[in-house]
TrEMBL record, chains A, B:
It comes from the Bacteria. The keyword Translocase does not apply. The lineage of its organism: Bacteria, Pseudomonadati, Pseudomonadota, Alphaproteobacteria, Acetobacterales. Residues 5-360 form the Isopropylmalate dehydrogenase-like domain. This is 3-isopropylmalate dehydrogenase. Belongs to the isocitrate and isopropylmalate dehydrogenases family. LeuB type 1 subfamily. One of its GO terms (molecular function) is 3-isopropylmalate dehydrogenase activity. It comes from Acetobacter persici. GO terms for biological process: L-leucine biosynthetic process. The gene is leuB.
Length: 364, 364
């Protein structure tokens, strides 16, 4: 078999530190499982701004297009707060999503038994929680035109953004959600604000039609975004798969993550449409940010980055067994009582980034 | 003194039942505090659709304009799910907001000591919680043009909504938030998505400028909407006043309410700009919905509606003392152990809507 081509983009802040621990896992898999990886690394975000004056180069986009998968760290750096809207570090991830048509962001919110007390919610409310949010990521108000800030003749300024969703954009992400539900508990909840937004009304209609045509075996419910935010706090275990647009997905997936109390544990995958070169791209990243306040201290939790790599093994390389091995190694390390600072609790052993990474490799 | 002119709009579901209990409070105030109210009642939402074929009549809007304040129940009725976008019951509240320029929705999220266990969050996280969300309610994506669903030549359908905010729209709601913070703990957190939306970028700039010009004594911080959703779950007591746009406010205020675990307790006020008749309108409503599932059973909690009336006394009629009397009567009834079904817990006495209303009047 050809080696799997990976583009690794550690980015800013703790990105490079936690990515280093994935390196250990890769080395182990090459040595012990006969796998081969062809890895290219490059800069994005503030790191790329510092070197090239832009948050991501076209060359990097092309490398991403050619790769079997992209493993992303995190971007964002307060030192680049002044660069203006066009050059902000976030452009790196937004451009990758748009250029590679990475339209379906899969955001699991899962509570690990060993960490149930880390949540600010009562253990009885979150124990066993396992939600998958499928968020549309190349449409909606993030990318719609017209947009911008204009100055009217009388000096008033006006900021404008446009939410746009078309039938095929809604269908393809809903399809991902329905297929996901078939492998899980068989329930999709579609979320919009159809009571105030026509784009949400179309969303609801398209999801309903697709369901009737192709996924009648899956249970489909609908919920308004404001109610969904409430229900995630009131009784999050009522959900299996949630499918929603870009902006609601941004907020609701972060909310769902926080229910677990351990952001440093949560991976994500963003799956793409088939491109002109016949490949479909995919990008994997932890849901936590670049955490500039703790960067360089060697205390960041590498688990979310490592679990993102496990998602890559599963979804992009179809290495189910190896994905499971990595996930189980993580669970065992947690059960053994090792904790990074962010998930520390009484009676546990506090360790840094690299000790955690080594422990996971040892459990493999 | 002239009697205070109130327009009472009970609406759908439990609206009429809980409004009846406010009637008792009004009667008591007239008898014992020498106050006079001139009250008109009318239909909105499904109730108006049933009678007049539209969710709100212009006549009702005009009555609202002429009143000193509007006391609103709730709208929404599954029997009117088929009427189409233009006629849905929600139009009643959206039209009132827009026509009376009710631009600043004040949504307190407060945890009553007696009900701290009602929250799904740990008591240590929410005890003493007291947040005020100031949500813009006549702008943003709720009302921007262009909007609608169109069919393209190839049959694809496109749903469109437009988020628009202008300098004066942002300034006036930010001013309400800063003034509110001065009477509270002196901290405003302004929330947007300036990292992806230009309307959010303008929002942040305008709030920052106004702060520097007029409110330098108040502490101002900024937060992205996704992070705000997380922080509300992680550590909600970090907030005092949150100011945000219409759509983020819709989601975040519902999220914040749910942290208290007792939606049936929470009132809201929406304050308006000065109108052509020299008056500024204001509307008061509980944050809970019409709860069609329990309507007519006499078990709904009337407290949110009664506390909405207390807000009316305070903000529209400047009756600080009477507002406090009502609020304290509610607290005492809770301390005495009476509970409606929604806030019931072990060892408390379960009562229905009217027993709760009577108990509050008795405590006055
Ligand atoms: C970095 C930012 C542009 C991004 C978003 O808003 O989509 C992030 O919050 C996310 O959820 O991936
Ligand atoms: C009824 C509905 C239109 C409304 C809104 O979305 O604003 C409600 O959710 C609210 O928050 O007052």
């Amino acid at each position: 078999a050809q080696p799997a081509k990976l583009l690794v983009l550690p980015g800013d802040g703790i990105g490079p530190e936690v990515m280093r621990e994935v390196g250990r896992v890769i080395t182990w898999l090459e040595k012990n499982r006969g796998l081969a990886f062809d890895i290219t690394e490059d800069l994005v975000g503030g790191a790329s701004l510092a070197e090239y004056g832009e948050p991501i180069r076209n060359e990097v986009i092309e490398k991403a297009r050619a790769a079997d998968a992209v493993l992303f760290g995190s971007v964002g750096d307060p030192r680049w707060g002044h660069v203006g809207f066009e050059k902000r570090p976030e452009v790196a991830i937004l451009k990758l999503r748009q250029e590679l048509e990475l339209f379906a962001n899969l955001r699991p919110a899962k509570v690990f038994d060993a960490l149930v007390d880390a949540s600010t919610l009562k253990p009885d409310v979150v124990r066993g929680l396992d939600i998958m949010i499928v968020r549309e990521t190349v449409g909606g108000i993030y990318f719609g035109d017209p947009r911008g800030i204009e100055t009217l003749p009388d000096g008033t300024r006006r900021g404008i953004n446009t939410e746009v969703y078309t039938t095929p954009e809604i269908e393809r992400v809903a399809r991902v959600a329905f297929e996901m539900a078939r492998k899980r508990s068989g329930h999709v909840c579609s979320v919009e604000k159809c009571n105030v937004m026509e784009s949400g009304l179309l969303w609801k209609e398209v999801v309903t039609d697709l369901h009737a045509r192709e996924f009648a075996d899956v249970k489909l419910t609908h919920m308004l975004a404001d109610n969904c935010a409430m229900q995630l706090v009131r009784n999050p275990r009522q959900f299996d798969v949630i499918v929603t647009g870009n902006l609601f997905g941004d907020i609701l997936s972060d909310l769902a993550s926080m229910l677990t109390g351990s952001l440093g544990m949560l991976p994500s995958a963003t799956l793409g449409a088939v491109q002109s070169n016949g490949k479909s791209a995919a990008l994997y990243e932890p849901i936590h940010g670049s955490a500039p306040d703790i960067a360089g201290h060697g205390i960041a939790n590498p688990i979310a980055q490592i679990l993102s790599f496990a998602m890559l093994l599963r979804y992009s390389l179809n290495l189910q067994e190896e994905a499971k091995m990595v996930e189980e190694a993580v669970s065992r390390v947690l059960e053994s009582g090792l904790r990074t600072a962010d998930i520390m609790s009484d009676g546990m052993a506090r360790v840094g980034t690299s000790v955690m990474g080594e422990a996971i490799v040892r459990e493999l």
